[in-house]
TrEMBL record:
MF annotations from Gene Ontology: ATP binding; sequence-specific DNA binding
Organism phylogeny: Bacteria, Pseudomonadati, Pseudomonadota, Gammaproteobacteria, Chromatiales
SUPFAM superfamilies: CheY-like, Homeodomain-like, P-loop containing nucleoside triphosphate hydrolases
InterPro entries given in the database record: AAA+_ATPase, AAA_lid_NorR, CheY-like_superfamily, Homeodomain-like_sf, HTH_Fis, P-loop_NTPase, Sig_transdc_resp-reg_receiver, Sigma_54_int
Keywords for this protein: ATP-binding, Nucleotide-binding, Phosphoprotein, Transcription, Transcription regulation
PANTHER family named in the record: RESPONSE REGULATOR PROTEIN PILR (PTHR32071:SF100), TRANSCRIPTIONAL REGULATORY PROTEIN (PTHR32071)
Modified residue annotations for 4-aspartylphosphate: 54
Name of the protein in question: Sigma-54-dependent Fis family transcriptional regulator
Gene3D superfamilies: 1.10.8.60, 3.40.50.2300, Homeodomain-like, P-loop containing nucleotide triphosphate hydrolases
Length: 451
């Protein structure tokens, strides 16, 4: 395999020297440019695997070079060298198409990590790379889902923070996982964190870790989720639920690329890509003073909107087929099919809970009938209610014959599903209706396998 080749663009001889030596130790060749004009010339003459450019150059701005590369050499990863603490320039560079940034003075480990990640981006995927498992594919062939798939592939080649929005159950976590699996971090962990599910007083220690004795119960040193993600992707779901003091600490961790465990005097360097998501409108949360504007600006460098299922009804048949296949595999029973009438019925349903609602609905349908073909009456959609007569005995008699724990689970499951249906799958409203906290509802959903 030929030696990887890096273009370094900076007018400071010390930086050119430092990058050249670091690359040489990694077996990477370098070409140097001190101006934009020299950089453009080298780009025309040679092929590179990575470009590293300073922001301020004698004949212009490095962002112009980032834009040109993004347009004319879309397969060439480009990273920006930025002045210490200048996150604004880093964000601007990533919005222009840079895949990452390094702040000056350059930390050698950060530089090595970045070069390593960039070279994986330009290398063809290795045979050991995780192929996309069918259970981790974004099913659907509608225009919005095809566009989403294309954007995910693009975002995978980038290290910029991504903010995923979309209604509950539209596949935000799945999209985050795919960005991770298709990118250079795929061999490192993908760590999903539900910010709404961690008790506020444990959040700092969960995210950043703690030192032994730093609080009652801290019986030994513990690494936090940031450290556990080292090299990989941290998915901060429901980020709007982060308490304000934690938002300040998260902002600091993103800016410094390091965290300080609770009770520790020293910072630990972390190389983590942040993808966050919320079904809430963060603009509104910022206006209400619930979410810090500066953090919003840092995490929302690139936005990905997951389309609602009702906006792409043509995806319902392939999704249903995929889900019925998963149910059959998990239960070891023959695969079920939807009748044409059932598919029509689904196409007319607004799906406030999106794909997760479709999953639950098909699980319920397969649990309550033995027929291989599922008809509209098996779906228990609002127009079918009250539940079809043949389902009622299951509820009344069979539940009675089950062990007490299972009976209670079944009753709880039904009450929760009804509250979710009634509130259009808004978990906060459903929790209120059920008289429990949102956190407790999330716990129950996960316990019952509904999350
Ligand atoms: N296009 C799709 N193809 C296949 N499966 C999908 C698709 N979209 C969503 N799913 C599945 O639907 C379920 C819900 O998706 P996911 O958890 O990613 O949604 P979410 O938007 O993160 O939900 P929430 O806002 O409630 O956290 C998951 O099991 C996911 O795999």
């Amino acid at each position: 395999m030929s030696k990887a080749h890096l273009l370094i663009v900076d007018d400071e001889p010390d930086i050119l020297e430092l990058v050249t030596i670091t690359c040489a130790r990694m077996g990477v060749g370098t070409q140097r440019a001190q101006t934009l004009a020299e950089a453009y010339h080298h780009l025309e003459q040679e092929t590179f695997d990575l470009c590293l450019t300073d922001m301020r150059l004698p004949d212009g701005n490095g962002i112009d070079l980032v834009r040109l590369i993004a347009k004319q050499y879309p397969n060439l990863p480009v990273a920006m060298l930025t002045a210490y603490g200048s996150m604004d320039s880093a964000v601007a560079a990533m919005k222009a198409g840079a895949f990452d940034f390094v702040s000056k003075p350059v930390d050698l480990q950060v530089l090595r990590n970045l070069i390593g990640a960039a070279l994986k981006l330009s290398a063809p995927p290795s045979s050991s790379a995780t192929p996309e498992q069918p259970s981790q594919a974004l099913i659907g062939d509608s225009l919005p889902i095809r566009e989403t798939r294309a954007l995910i592939a693009k975002l995978a080649r980038n290290q910029a923070p991504v903010f995923i929005t979309g209604e509950s159950g539209t596949g935000k976590e799945l999209a985050a996982r795919l960005i991770h699996l298709q990118g250079p971090r795929r061999e490192h962990p993908f760590v999903p964190v539900n910010c709404g599910a961690i008790p506020a007083d444990l959040m700092e220690s969960e995210l950043f870790g703690h030192r032994k004795g730093s609080f009652t119960g801290a019986v030994c040193d513990k690494a936090g989720l940031f450290q556990a993600t080292q090299g990989g992707t941290l998915f901060l779901d429901e980020i709007a639920d982060l308490p304000l003091p934690m938002q300040v600490k998260l902002l600091r961790a993103i800016q410094q690329k390091s965290v300080r465990p609770v009770g520790s005097e020293t910072e630990v360097e972390v190389d983590v890509r942040i993808i966050s998501a919320s079904h809430r409108n963060l603009d509104d949360e910022v206006e209400r003073g619930n979410f810090r504007r500066d953090l919003y600006y840092r995490i929302d460098v690139i936005e990905l909107l997951m389309p609602a299922l009702r906006s792409r009804p043509e995806d319902i048949p392939p999704l249903a087929d995929h889900i019925l296949g998963q149910i059959a595999e998990a239960s070891g029973t023959p695969k079920r099919y939807l009748s044409d009438a059932a598919l029509c019925r689904l196409a007319a349903h607004p799906f406030p809970g999106n794909v997760r609602e479709l999953q639950n609905l098909l699980e319920r349908a397969t649990a309550l009938t033995d027929d291989v073909e599922l008809g509209p009456e098996d779906l228990y959609l609002p127009a079918n209610r009250p539940l079809p007569a043949r389902a009622k005995p299951v509820q009344a008699e069979e539940i009675d014959r089950q062990p007490l724990g299972d009976q209670l689970d079944e009753i709880e499951r039904r009450a929760i599903l009804e509250a979710l249906d009634a509130t259009h799958w808004n978990r906060t409203a459903a929790a209120k209706q059920l008289g429990m906290t949102t956190r407790s509802l999330r716990y129950r959903l996960s316990k019952l396998g509904l999350s």
